[in-house]
């Protein structure tokens, strides 16, 4: 019988599976924005979610180092706290198309509607497919992107970790936001990871179950939620005067 000091050669070693996709979570310090890079490694096609103009050089360098072909620069909404990096990325990657909700009021190459799909990679092989879910409330054009294969959802400013987007400007509506979260996000399976557009406390992601259980705003009734949002008394984003016109 083999002792605990047996050589590793006595054991069968499982071959490592070849990863099908790449996923990177990147951070911009000034506005505490998360940018997400997704790629299908079979075709090297990639998309980026919520790029920031201040970190375009970093993101472009990473994309080039990894030999990726950037197809889409996707924004979850028209941001008020930073300028999107979509335009600068398009200059560096001429085949890249900008993507945003059709309800955003912003200029883009491609407009997405609720229920439509964004896909990179080859159908039938290992594509990355994102389901678009309209989640208005923070703005009219807010959209969340569900990556079912990776049990993840990119929620923009609609749902944050233990919080949510503000509703006191830019077409904000607490009533709409509550409906969006309860019907479009909290109906996802509990184990889906929540990747927001921002976090100000150093947390990387959450889960649907965590937010349904521990989000102090969203465990309340609709009327209580509306009252909470009406009394936040937040200052306007520092970059709003230049960010909104540029992003539109």
Would you kindly provide a written description of the structure presented here, covering whatever features stand out?
Helix content is 21%, strand content 27%. The chain is an alpha/beta fold. The chain has a single domain, classed as Metallo-beta-lactamase, Chain A. The strands form 3 sheets. Strands 1-2-3-4-5-6 form a 6-stranded mixed β-sheet, covered by helices on one side. The longest helix is centred in the last third of the chain and has 12 residues, at 174-185. The N and C termini lie far apart (71 Å). The model is unreliable at 1-15 (pLDDT under 50). Belongs to the metallo-beta-lactamase superfamily. Glyoxalase II family. It is found in: Mitochondrion. Its EC number is 1.13.11.18. One of its GO terms (biological process) is glutathione metabolic process.
Please describe the structure with a list of short key phrases separated by commas or semicolons:
248 residues; alpha/beta; Metallo-beta-lactamase, Chain A; six-stranded mixed beta sheet; disordered N terminus
